[in-house]
Amino acid sequence: MSASALPRPIAALRKTILCLFSALLVLIFFKNFSVLSDLGVIFFCAIYLIQTIPLLLFLPGLYQTRLRSYAWLSFVILLYFMRGILTAFETKTRLIGLSEVLICTLLFCCIVVFIRRYRGHYKTPL
Fold it and tell me: Do 54 and 119 form a contact (C-beta atoms < 8 A)?
């Protein structure tokens, strides 16, 4: 199913999901930016890739609008939500942790609504 063939409300949800997904990747980048000055570029890249590969695995499915990718991403997002909660309890990184929690919450809710509306409109199984 191409993205241009989606009804307008479903396409808007899909764009919102992709924007929030990108925001989460950018937030993880800036969250790890302190490692760059301490350990160097190689460790920064290694840590960033380790933290983002689970998200990047879903990227082809998100762009091709595969419902299973959206469903599995919603489960993986909960892990990043938990990590954001743990980060929010540290005083130095409280704002970053709360931002991660907010992005993950919005992303999870948008994915659930997207799947429900998509399945309701196209009458397809997951």
Answer: no
Residue 111 confidence (pLDDT): 97
Question: Is 23 a member of any domain?
Answer: yes
Between CA 79 and CA 76 the distance in angstroms is 5
Domain that holds residue 59: 6-120
- Closest alpha carbon to 100 in 115, 79, 114: 79
What is the pLDDT at residue 33?
82
75-82 long-range contacts, Cβ below 8 Å, gap at least 24?
77/104, 77/107, 77/108, 77/111, 78/104, 78/108, 79/54, 80/24, 80/55, 80/104, 81/105, 81/108
CA Rg value for the chain:
16
Q: Which pair of structure tokens corresponds to residue 15?
A: 């764009």
CA atoms within 13 A on the CB side of 115: 17
Mean pLDDT for each 10-residue chunk of the chain (126 residues)? 77 96 95 79 89 96 94 96 95 93 98 95 83
Q: What is the domain count for the chain?
A: 1
Length of the chain: 126
